[in-house]
Every structure is written in C-alpha cells, then in structure tokens.
Amino acid sequence: MIRITHLSGSQKGKIASSANPTVRVGRASDCDVRFDAARDPKVSNHHAEFLFEDGCWFVVDTASTNGTLVEGRRIAKHRLRQGEEVQFGKDGPLLRVEFDAQDGLGGAMKTKAVSVTAVRRMTDAPRIDATAELSKISSDLQESTDTATAKLAEIAAHEVAQERAKAGGVSSGKTMLIMASTLKQVQRTTRATTARRWVKAVAAVAGLAAVIVAVMGIVIAQQKRQIEELVKQKERIDKEIETVEQQISEESEPERLAALEEKLNTLTGKAQSTLTALEKSDKKKAEALAERGDELDRQIRDILRKFDADTYAVPPIFKERLRFHVDELVKAPNLKFIYGRKQRYWPMITRQFSALGLPEEMAYVAWAETQFDPKAKSSAGAAGMWQMMASTAQSYGLRVDDSVDERYDPDKETRAAARHLANLLAEYGTDSFMLAMASYNRGEAGMRRVLREIAQEPGGFRKEKRDFWHLYRMKKLPEETREYVPKVLAAVIVSRDAKKLGLED
Q1: pTM score, two decimals?
Q2: Who's near 46: CB < 8 A, 6+ residues apart?
Q3: In this structure, what DSSP letter does residue 100 have?
Q4: What is the pLDDT of residues 240-285, one digit of tens each?
Q5: How far apart are CA 67 and CA 207, in angstroms?
C-alpha cells in the first residue's frame, strides 16, 4: 500500500492511497493521481509513475517535459525512502510518499498442493530475501513440514521466475543452482532437530524438487499468459494510435486537432506503460516491440535518440515526406557528385562543429540548402554553402560589403553557421533540434511569431507546446518549413547508406 500526501499544487492537503503496484501520475484522464491542467502547468499528461518492484517502491519519470525531482535533483528512476518528497517539475506540485512494509509472500500455504491463486500471489509479490525466509521456515518445520515444503517450493519457484525475467523470458541457467541452494538450506536448518522430526524433514526434502518443478511450471505458464496479454494490449493501442495520427493528418480545424492530439498523448502514455510492464517479464520482447516498424522507422528513431528527442509516434505524413526525399536523393543522377563534394568539405565542417560540440547531423543543413556548393546564391540574397543572409553573417563577424563577401569562404561561413546553429539549440534545447533546423529555414523572427501565437493558447508557454512534433501536427509551420526538416534528415539517412549505395567508390 502506498500513501500519497499532496503538500502543494491543485490537490494540496489531499491524501490518496493505492494497493496497485503501478500508480500513474499526470494530467491525463487515465492517471491514478491526476492534476489540474490549468493550475499545475508543470505537470505533463503522463508525467511519472510510482512502481513497486523487487520489494521496493520507485518513482520513474515517464519522459515528462519539466522533469521529476527528488531533493531538488532531476531523476529518471529513483528508489524511494519512507516519507520522501517528490516534485513534478521545478516549482511544480510536491508530494510526500509513504508505504507499508511487505511481508514477502503473505503467509505460508497450508498444504503441498500449489493453487493457481497462490502462484498469482507469488508472481505479484516483491523480491524475497530467500536466506531470511528460509531461516524463518526452519523453525516452521518443527510444526508443519508439509506447510514449510510448500512454501519453500513457492520461494524457489519465485526466484527462478525472477531470474527468467532478467534473462529476457528464457531459461536463465540458474534453476538447478536455486534448487540445490534451497535443499542445502533445509538440510542445515533441520539437522539439529530430533530423529523423528529429521526423518519427517528428509521425507519433505525428497519431495521438494518435484514440488518446485510443479510450481515453476505454473509460474512460467502464468508469465507467458501475462506477456501475451501485454503484447496484444500494445498492438491494440498501436492500431488506435495509427488511426488518430491519420485523423490528425487529415484534419485542419484547430479545436478538433487539439482534441485529437490530447487523445494521442493519452494513447502513447498507455503504450509506454504497457512496454514498462512487459519489460519486467520479458525484456527482450519489450525491446523488440519498442523497435517496431520498418528500416526507415529505425533510422528515424536512431537520429532522434542522438538528440534525446525520441518520440513514441512519428506522424505518418512526416515519415511519408521523409521517404519521398530519400527516394528523390537516391534516384538523383548527380547524387555521387553531391556526395563527393560533401566529402571534400566534411573534414572542415566536422572540425568546426566538433569545436562547439554540435552533432554532425546538424551539418546536413548545408546539403538541404545548397548541396554543399560554396558559391551558391539565392534570389533573396542568401549566399554561400550555408545560405546566410548578409545581416546574419555580419552578426557572426563575417565581412559582407561591396568589396568582400566572406560568405563565399567555406571555412569562415561554416564557423559562423556552426555558431548560429549552436545558438538556436541553446534557445530551443537539444531535444528540439528539429525546431532549431526549422528556425534556420524559417528565420528566427518567423519562428518566434509561431511560438508567440502558440503562447496565446491555454498552457501554450509549456515546453510540450513548443515541441516540433506539436507544431507539426497542429500545422503551425509553413509548408516550406514542414518539408525542410525531413529534407535534412533524408540527407543524413542517404549518407549513412553511402557504401550500400555505391557512393564511396
């Protein structure tokens, strides 16, 4: 049992209790501890979870916008102490957490027969201190060897199940070691009893292995059923997400778009919670489900993770446009020439970007802008490989006048472009790197107008409302900018496949 006392925020003074091993916290309708969206803007839709596992309570941040803090420190997963205080977002609502001590399996079984109900109790129970439990059972043997045998079987099977889950749902190779250790402990703790009791204990030990195997079979069968149910549940949620994403791509009315995105956020929160639950029983299967989709999906996720910008659901229209630009590049007759020019300038570019700690993926802006042509010039007055306007170039120390235009110097303009992109990342955050690239195309003034428009909506100042995916789904970005980001990522993906495409010959 966990008790949550609200120390501040919209629920201040209230106390909530739950016997569930997972308690969801956030603003969404499916959360167990629910905050008011207007009064608690620091709290995300699915902000965090309190989890009971391995005999302990943990608080886990579920990719919130403003973070989950314990003692002022932002955490991803933290083991809770009795009475510890947890805050949802800096200056957000504060909770105090208290919980009851657990007593292992909740009492000994009465006979050797192992019921499905008992096994369910066992699989839901926290991690057991086997040594302490076995010492306790040694005294119980004097009163009821049959009862002790059944409980020993339960403990051993539970340990086997835990090791199996750690191994990813397959045999851990530790089953025989656990059984041998259990039997040895029984022998040590019962040898000092009277001869009559020792004979009875030996008889119990003789049947222990068979009981363990029986219980273990039920545990594994139960685990498999739970895994199958979780997999089916996630598949159902993913289908709902696809439907909502498609509706979003076809919708244009703002209020309807907002309602659909709220529904999408709720569904993705459920999907992520299902994956978390699945990971406890079968880590490998959970990882396989997380890496869903085709090769393009995996490449998108790989790029996003590099910037801590991973998202559960990439809009289908974004993926469709990305695939279009990848196909266009692959079919381009001058692709090998462009790639060769990129390779010519790449050492210089990566040197400038590395000096500021910028990921090299940001440098593909130059591919989208000019295909790495240092002499390029646009009708709007942008010039050089990075297509900088004169005022922007001058603000970064480049000379642009009637006599000299240093935008045509690849090294100098690259240094200026790297500083410009670093400033954009500092303004929007690394996890909003796509927003930084969009701003490079749209212009800082244009992007600020979009964000100020968003700020006039309820909660529009929150980071999740300033996120690229939100702006993309809500169709707040101009069409050219919506195309620009997938165009840059397409260049990244094609370059990663250079060898396969025969570009490095």
Answers
A1: 0.59
A2: 24, 26, 28, 31, 62, 63, 64, 265, 266, 268, 269, 272, 273
A3: P
A4: 988 998 898 888 888 888 888 888 888 888 888 888 888 887 888 7
A5: 52
